[in-house]
Description:
Helix 1 (23-35) packs across helix 2 and helix 1 packs across helix 3 (56-68). The mean pLDDT is 91. By secondary structure, the protein is an alpha+beta fold. It has helices at 23-35, 40-49, 56-68, and strands at residues 7-12, 15-20. Helices cover 49% and strands 16% of the residues. Strands 1-2 form a two-stranded antiparallel ribbon. The protein is globular. The chain contains three helices and two strands; from the N terminus they run E-E-H-H-H. It has one domain (17-68).
Amino acid sequence: xxxxxxxxxxxxxxxxxxxxxxxxxxxxxxxxxxxxxxxxxxxxxxxxxxxxxxxxxxxxxxxxxxxxxxxxx
Length: 73
């Protein structure tokens, strides 16, 4: 058994933070960022700005799910 999803560091709004996401979610975020002509950090910054009370990792997972459902801008 592993210790959970791997953590990756990313810079958002000028500060470093870490996200724990499964590799499949990282891949999906990379594809979504590419489709929007954004760097992955830019996409995650947008997600961060609209996440409300969710933690950032959860907000990223929900964003990917909504994208699969056709519910992203």
